[in-house]
Target: CoA transferase
Amino acid sequence: MGGVLDGVRVLDFGRYIAGPYCATLLAEFGAEVIRVEKRDGSEDRFVAPVGEDGEGALFLQVNRNKKCITLDPMKAEGQEVMRRLVATADVVVANLPPQTLRAMKLDYESLKAVKPDIILTTATAFGGPGPWSDRVGFDGVGQVMSGSVYMTGAGDPPYRAAVNWVDFGTALHCAFGTLAALIERGKSGRGQVVEGALLATALSFTNATLIEQAVINVNRVPTGNLGQTAAPADIYRTNDGWVLCQVTGHPLFKRWARLMGEEEQWLNDPRFADDISRGNNGPIISERMARWCAERTTQEAVDTLGRAMIPTGPVLSPQQALDHPHIRAAGFMQDVDYPGLPKPAPVARAAVRLSETPGDIATRPPTLGEHTDLVLTKLGYDEAAIAALRQGGII
Model:
């Protein structure tokens, strides 16, 4: 496949998002990634099913460019396969609880005994040390414990985000950490553990809110879509939909006031002198912006705001997002075929572009166990040995 990580072999024992998407990012930039699944398929293969065999949308998103083998690592013969695999690997990705890593002999000490310079990239729900270190959790746990959910919506009830930003953020941190570890290994020859945590990611993304609370004890409460530290910052109804407008910084506010045709009114009033003052008086500014938007179609509003260099965007349904002319023209997604799908899946490319060594979606996600024989053959297993492993329920 080629790429900046060409020659790096990654074993992906990940589940759901944080581990698998970390490995996907490495694969998109050239690493050889071998996904290791249970014999009947890992649970994350079947989330939001879209394929005739139950493969899910999430699986299609975060497993392109990988090979797949099936393996039972809890049996002695499976452990031998694992040992041979680890001996050939540079990185092991496994977002599993510490006790599970130890049981599977995927903990760092066990891996290092096989490959001294191995890099173990792992992620847990809560990180450690701490009283919750061994507990398990999903994306929503990070959202609710970081202050994010408390500040979302109108407060009764609080709302978590519909997308798994904590999981994907953890995957990004883990991929970054893995690259740093590979660079260090290139200098010193040493492997190490790269550890992410869902709660750590969520706290890092909401950190400014937490800093503000700690330093000035502001005790903010949720205000729906209305911004609190600048204005106008809200989602406004047009005469055929909704549009978001966000104004932060005085140069943007001056442009907004000019667009309203009311520079003197807004720029000379001390209530709107700076961002925080405008945030404190946000309902006044938003009322004016709401009237402006109500007089226009969504397209008219975003075009006019865009020409004025004011950050804006329409509120799109999933289908409208797929159909949006800029999203289509920019090539953010690539149609990928998969056996049993009624039509190709629009898979989002890695959201970063390198001018000289770009990433690539080169192969579709693997079917369950698609590459088991290929990978084991390269590890030295002959046809009879592979058949025996299959007969014994190891693969």
About this structure: The longest strand covers residues 32-37. The radius of gyration is 25 Å. The chain has a mean pLDDT of 96. The chain is about 40% helix and 15% strand.
